[in-house]
């Protein structure tokens, strides 16, 4: 039992205190993605060609591999949060909503792992 | 289960057409790029799987439908970036007045169009030169 008065509770923690977590992470990932996405776009456009050898040596570079890993993780997280909000707002059937939310979360987790694994595989071993 | 009251949804707000359109477009652009993420990861995996897998993917990713999709992704990216920066500025408590937000709505659209054109021009030029 808590001795804290209802007013004190509201002024202090209010709810469990995690209500803004979703909002905050969406903003943080957005902020991180501004430079990361611009970097990726400019790098891709500046590549001399899009053939296999050029791309493998580009992805495998220390800086590229690191930034690309950050990009994949941040984008997957940001996309997961965004799709979640859209599903919560527009899917009204409760069962369908839960199913689609779970599915979206799983798909995003799989995408993140696949992306990071692909980058590491290119960086550490020659996939020729 | 009894339907429980929901928090106020957009139907109860009197949003101006500017904020309504720009907010909706931002979500739509985000969704397009979520699809883009799917394609990007597929591209990375095929690159990691080797020459043959990549050349197979290259054929798929060079199709007409794919090219149309890149145009959509570039447009979505340009818009989402500009609108996203506007949202981040809003989050600091600035630019929320009606006149300011209407002005920034136009600014976002103009910046997005310019950025998309720049990207499109650059990509086209790179393709002409390299392939």
Spell out the blueprint of helices and strands.
The complex is a heterodimer of chains A (128) and B (131).
Chain A: H1 6-11, H2 21-46, H3 52-60, H4 62-90, H5 94-124
Helix pairs in contact in A: 2-4, 3-5, 4-5
Chain B: H1 17-48, H2 51-61, H3 64-91, H4 98-129
Helix pairs in contact in B: 1-2, 1-3, 3-4
Gross geometry of chain B: extended
| SS content category of chain B | mainly alpha
Question: CATH homologous superfamily of chain A - what is it?
Answer: Fumarate reductase/succinate dehydrogenase, transmembrane subunit
Report the average pLDDT across residues of chain B. 87
What name does the CATH topology of chain B carry? 3 helical TM bundles of succinate and fumarate reductases
From the N-terminal CA to the C-terminal CA of chain A, the straight-line distance is 64 Å
What is the domain tally of chain A?
1
What series of H and E elements makes up the topology of chain B?
A: HHHH
Q: What oligomerization state is this entry in?
A: heterodimer
Tell me the radius of gyration of chain A. Answer: 20 Å
CATH class of chain A: Mainly Alpha
Strand content of chain B: under 5%
Helix count of chain A equals 5
Main sheet overview of chain A: none
Indicate how many domains the architecture of chain B comprises: 1
The fourth-level CATH homologous superfamily of chain B is Fumarate reductase/succinate dehydrogenase, transmembrane subunit
Under the CATH scheme, which class of chain B?
Answer: Mainly Alpha
What is the correct CATH architecture of chain A? Up-down Bundle
Q: Which class best fits the helix and strand makeup of chain A?
A: mainly alpha
